Amino acid sequence: MTAETSQTLDRGLRVLKLLADTDHGLTVTELSHKLGVNRTVVYRLLATLEQHALVRRDIGGRARVGLGVLRLGRQVHPLVREAALPALRSLAEDIGATAHLTLVDGAEALAVAVVEPTWTDYHVAYRAGFRHPLDRGAAGRAILKARQGRTQDAGLALTHGELEAGASGAAAPLLGVSGIEGSVGVVMLSDSVSDRVGPRVVDAAREVAEALR
């Protein structure tokens, strides 16, 4: 800790991170051990976080992340979308295919930004808000590859017909962005993805990642 930082705020944020990393919640004693502070300090931290709905305690007294975190999280999407739009527009126009930014939302992939090309006669209609399982579609598969550390090819994923008959997809994960799991990709009406698309998608994902750092 430095003179410019708040020890109490730091501990509160550590509590949230610890709770976010468990599905079963943590007791006051468990949090006390993990934080290296006494139980009285933990009680005060939890009480403050509960007042802001960032933490809740179940009947058994285990602390869990509260619904207030979801409200904060919803405000992140517009900021991420705004940062990604320049790279997505360039990708869509260059490839002539619908470009998208997809983020993890629970066990699903959620498209939070979509840009369609302006010069093509036809293209795939892909809407922001579209959801699909992480293990289906190029966007989700790219995220899973990054999660598994399989990034020797920049995590590029190619698919055909998994989400829409006759459509192919290419996506690359956002790498090196703390706190965000996502991918940038394109979807097109074709039987396969041409050789030039993959590297271009990887470059776009890198551009978006740099904008978010």
Automatic annotation (TrEMBL):
Keyword Transcription: yes
Domain HTH iclR-type as annotated: residue spans: 6-67
This protein's record includes keyword Iron-sulfur: no
UniProt keyword terms in alphabetical order: DNA-binding, Transcription, Transcription regulation
TM region positions: none
SUPFAM superfamilies per record: GAF domain-like (SSF55781), Winged helix' DNA-binding domain (SSF46785)
Highest taxon in the source lineage: Bacteria
GO MF term list: DNA binding; DNA-binding transcription factor activity
Residue span(s) of domain IclR-ED: 68-213
GO biological process, one term: negative regulation of DNA-templated transcription
Protein's recorded name: HTH domain-containing protein
Organism: Streptomyces kasugaensis
Lineage: Bacteria, Bacillati, Actinomycetota, Actinomycetes, Kitasatosporales
